[in-house]
What does this fold into?
Amino acid sequence: MTKITFITSDNETITVEGNSGSVMQLAVDNNIKGIDGDCGGVCSCATCHVHVHPDHFDKTGAPGEIEQDMLELDDNVSEYSRLCCQLEVNEALDGLILTVAQ
It folds into this structure.
């Protein structure tokens, strides 16, 4: 079981567990505030924008070209931004900390 921690805009820290699927779906299934996933995970809306904790960015790696293009449309982007619909739950992400973008 992979544990992923979300920090919401209310500064609430929520740790959830999953085995497969996207991190976005894991967040939606666990009602993480601020993760809407309006496009269903096809990288076309950026409603699942998160900031990866800098110490964990090597776990996720950088966004791909299409994801980067989508992030450029968001005003609150940082060097640690990712769309969590593009992150697959797997053992390598265990312990990941994500801050939900505003």
The first strand starts at residue 2 and ends at 7. The two ends are 28 Å apart (CA to CA).
